[in-house]
Amino acid sequence: MDHAIDTRQLRAFVCLARSGSFTQAGRELHLTQSAISHAIKSLETDLGSQLFHRQGKSVHLTHAGRELLPNAETILQSMGHARAILGTLDQTPRGKLRIGCTTAAAQFILPTVFREFKESFPLYEIKVVCGETPDTIERLVKNQVDITVSLRPQEVTKLNCHAIFDDELEFLVSPLHPWAQKAPKIKDAASETFIVASRNSLNFALVQDFFMKQGVRLNSFIELGSSEATKELAKLGIGVAIAARWIARTEIEAGQLIALPLPKAKLKRRWVVSTLKDRPLNLPERTFIGLCEEVGRRMIDVRP
Question: What is the pTM of this model?
Answer without folding.
Answer: 0.64
